[in-house]
Request: fold
Amino acid sequence: MGHKQQFILETMVNKAIITVVGKDTVGIIAQVRTYLAENKVNILDISIVQEYFTMMMIVDMTKLEKPFEQVVSELTNIGSGIGVQIKCQREEIFDKMHRI
Reply:
């Protein structure tokens, strides 16, 4: 694949990182997953640590039909409602923040 084709492919995917941290309760994954599906956000990868509930997802927001900031706010509100902290960051911001 040439550089131009690779660039086009990479720009077609609008990735974000969603983290969920808190006390494990029934329905956390279901509520987050349902919200994402309703907003046409595709989960590309998911990792869960169960002892202290921690979930990290890489998602594709290419088909999202509302402002990214609105999704961030709505996910924060969902987290508050179920007793966990949900953060959503664009992948490039997440990468820059976690570079050593």
Notes: Confidence is low (pLDDT under 50) at residues 1-11.
